Amino acid sequence: MVVAFEGWNDAGEAASAAIEHLQLSWEATAVDELSQDDYYDFQVSRPTVHMVDGVTRRIDWPTTLLSRCSPAGFDQDLVLVQGPEPNLRWRAFCDELIDKAQRLGVSTVVTLGSLLADTAHTRPVRITGAGYDAESAERHGFASTNYEGPTGITGVLHYACVQAGIPAISIWAAVPHYVSQSPSPKVTLAMLRKLEDVLDLEIPFGSLPEQAEEWQRTVSELAEEDDEVSEYVRSLEERGDAEVDLTETSGEQIAADFERYLRRRRGGGPSSAT
């Protein structure tokens, strides 16, 4: 199961866009939803009205939808979950979502999130994450973190899954705070590439690489028009470059990652969980 929520956990809408990309790429079909009346304050997460044929109106209520797809070359189905971060009863919300996951036979949950950070748009997107134990974190290349502080529904769900005995993995991507407006295709692409590694599954990226290049080019052009912004971006670049640890990845890890990449492209058959 791959999960993303709109709102606090979704800077630049990068995480929710990743789920939408997977839904479209793999023609996911809706299988379930969580009751919106139990978890949403409609004065905060308001319903939206739409005209149908210019005559009647349709009300769309905020809700969390579950869809299912069968990616080519993958030996299990994927359940995709997307919706606004709930306003109410988070523990009950997580309990209900975990119950639905168990009924669908989900064996692993991957949560996606994006956050604002002091990072340059011209540099590779910073990806962080967490595993369900030290071994899984090391296997997926997630560095340990000492973060303590406020969390969103993805953090609560991750914890609830582990407490329920369901392995859970979190993937977080950093969005440059000075270009937090959506969409953020470069960040979405980086998140999907990490998800591809975690699932050991080839994900079709479609036009995302071209959109990411155009996004970076556009932001660079806008930054160059303002001397203060341009100087700030350069300072972020210098700081980020200074923090790069060139010895972080061993030759063995690079070889293993490349072997996994080739296996996915050749349809070697991953063994990842739903």
TrEMBL record:
Protein name: PAC2 family protein
Alphabetized SUPFAM superfamilies for the sequence: Cgl1923-like
Domain of life: Bacteria
InterPro entries, alphabetized: Proteasome_assmbl_chaperone_2, PSMG2_sf, Rv2714-like
Pfam families tied to this protein: PAC2
Lineage: Bacteria, Bacillati, Actinomycetota, Actinomycetes, Pseudonocardiales
